Amino acid sequence: MTWTILGGVAALFFLGRCICNLYFHPLRKFPGPKKAAIGGFLEFYYDVLKDGTYIWEIEKMHKKYGPIIRINAEELHIDDPTFYGNIYAGGGKRVNKHEATVAAYTVPRASLATVDHDRHRVRRAILNPYFSRKAITDLEPLIHGLISTLFEKLDNYRAKGTVVDLEKAFSAMTGDLITLYFYGSHGDHLSSEDFKNEENEAAVSVIEMYHLARFLPTLANWMKKLPIPIVRMIHPGAAHMLQSQVDVRKAITETIKSTKQTTRSRSVILSALADPNNPAEENTLDRLVDEGMTIILAGTEITAHTLGATMFYVLNDKKILDRLREELAELAPGPPEQYTYSGLEALPYLTAVINEGLRLSHGVSARLPRISVVEPLYYGDWVIPPGARLLPPFHHTPISTQSPLIHYNETIFPNPKKFDPTRWIRAAETGVNLNKYMVSFSKGSRGCLGISLAYCEMYLTLARLVRRFDMTLDGTKLEDVEPYHIRLTSYPREGMGEVRVRLERRD
């Protein structure tokens, strides 16, 4: 009898909540299907049970209901490339993140997961100098050294006739770079068997859990309190993530202890995050671990994934590869080890190739809702209200869009799924700025911290790689790299993405 009563109460509560969301909610007048507006059930089905495919349902909703729609009880989604800068605003506009979204990152003290605009500015200001264009330019010798180490390993595979997965190779290189810059030392993943990279494996585990953690953040926090062997029996991916946090904590502690007498260090963790001049609450070990996790994981997986996808498209079309090599051959005489980021950036076709690779791999692909703190936003005749809940906690309306929908916009990018570097050159010749629609790194005051580092890695690696080796795809097809599952980043319909090649040394 008691269970019957409890079930009835739960059913009445659920029905009441649905009615409230449909007919009394501040967003009730916005377009969209009622099955989305009643709560997060439709979103849960597609993003959790169908593994990150809600974006394609959202795309269908936009075609039916228009550019602004309600995609769950409290969130609006806008499919309009010209409005992107209003959502992801910069300058002095105060923009908060969405609490429910950042809770899924499981690193609550990191800049990436900081909800409040003002606190984020404090945290970002600490790191900005170390990821500025000048700071990254100073890293070029280090990047060249790691690329040379990568090529030595690739030469060994070439000599043995072994097939190489370029995505794994790139993740080993990017992982070594970001950990070296962060700690002052790295795990030498480039020397490991088959480019094994624990940081990348942890990143993949975080990404795989992202949607479930969005809906059940307390579950993720509960797992963090359990012994790792027990978590491994429940969810191996979660255990991998937790072990990575333990490893990061240990590495940070050892780095600080081993160099605490040093007056100057190249390690970001010592030079920036652990600076005694920072506010005391910014220097706790827990915060350093959370920040370290995000910097290392983001600096490993996303850049490697983009490099791999770009190389697939280049190798899949000989005309693109030939034109790229012709442009590189026109550079001033000298070994590729002397290439500079600024020099390569001036090459229009190489730049176009990198832009297309970024566009079709999408970078951070998940919805990243923003909340305008001070005033409502206006989209056409629609006034986006400053509040979205009738009951506490009150907060502003989360608004989002997604990079794949911007990058696949047929008006901005005709034949959008085709890898066509010349679209960027044609646009530049006619005075059209396509770069403002490149949102792989997001934009505004919350845009990607490591954008300059990622670009530098891509320019130097791609330019040197196509000059050093002849490569032939070994069974990798378009469906092996084309995005379908949108987690934090995008992945193909099957697997995690791989670009398998056979190598030959160029004369």
UniProtKB/TrEMBL annotation:
PROSITE patterns: CYTOCHROME_P450
Annotated positions binding heme: 448
Cofactor: heme
Keyword list, A-Z: Heme, Iron, Metal-binding, Monooxygenase, Oxidoreductase
Keyword Metal-binding among UniProt keywords: yes
Alphabetical list of SUPFAM superfamilies matching this protein: Cytochrome P450 (SSF48264)
Transmembrane segments: none
InterPro entries from the UniProt entry: Cyt_P450 (IPR001128), Cyt_P450_CS (IPR017972), Cyt_P450_E_grp-I (IPR002401), Cyt_P450_sf (IPR036396), Cytochrome_P450_monoxygenase (IPR050121)
Pfam families named in the record: p450 (PF00067)
Listed GO MF terms: heme binding; iron ion binding; monooxygenase activity; oxidoreductase activity, acting on paired donors, with incorporation or reduction of molecular oxygen
Stretch forming the signal peptide: none
Family: Belongs to the cytochrome P450 family.
Protein name: Cytochrome P450
UniProt source species: Immersiella caudata
